[in-house]
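User: I'm curious whether this sequence folds into something compact or stays loose and floppy. Could you predict its structure so I can see for myself?
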Amino acid sequence: MSDPQKLTIGKAINLGLRRAMEEDPKVLIMGEDVGKLGGVFRITDGLQKDFGEQRVLDTPLAESGIIGTAVGLAVRGFRPVCEIQFEGFIFPGFDQISSQVAKLHYRTQGKVKMPIVIRVPFGGGIGAVEHHSESPESLFAHIPGLKVVSVSNAVDAYWGIQQAIKSDDPILFFEPKKLYHSGAMKSEVDVEATPDQLFKSRVVREGTTATVVAYGPSVKVALDAASAAEDEGKSLEVIDLRTLSPLDLEPVFESVRKTGRLIALSEAPSESSLTSEIAARVQQECFYSLEAPVLRVTGFDTPYPPAKLEEHYLPDLDRVLHTVDRSLAW
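Assistant: Here's the prediction. I'll summarize afterward.
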């Protein structure tokens, strides 16, 4: 037996991809600069060297072509893993994703499967230019036929990418780019463990004062806020959604029935978002348990700002704590 390894999220995804490719020769990786360069974030580093150019393919700068090619490969029995270099570049491929990837299984009455994984580095916090810090996950969670996953730690990154690749359903795999190489989010990964189910939420910190639900890069913010709130005598329960479609909200309902309060946290704009859906569902299911309205801490309903302003745009510890205080004062 091997000892658990302490990994960053980026390294965990790399090792997860490597293991999936070792176990199944039908797994292919394709995208812009994923081969010789190893991706702009070096997530696919070393894979082309070890598996060859026939299985790790550098593609043209054409997201629609990448996704369209993956559809053809999936029809022929392959399991393509596409990388979208930055989330803001995904929209040329939106038609392929929404019209073909999401619907072919349904359209063919189950005869054609779409075991495609689309990896999407997303979110802000890296000081990038326009189109490099978006949070478009709500758009894809709204499309029937797609599953949407967002990891927040190395354990879920390692196992989640493998589970996604093994799935016969198409999955968008949103990865928090600002946490790829963060030492603060390193986790011990036991490569011989039995992983949690991919489509299940998880309580990552127990508490009694209020519930904070988050996903992807916002989970770290929620955990930091919970640690700070503890110094003030407040006990925040933090839930990591892990999967955004389908949403597993039962742990959230159970938590809210205990705490009576919910703060939904996300970097994405607030209007018509996942936090909107969470608020609606919780108020529908837990109305008589709520001591205050569901409150949200999100990005703003504006285009993502220039890098020097992003610290004012992104939800942070202070905004979460302020919202907890608003909830408690209700």
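Summary: The chain has two domains: 5-189, 202-329. The mean pLDDT is 96.
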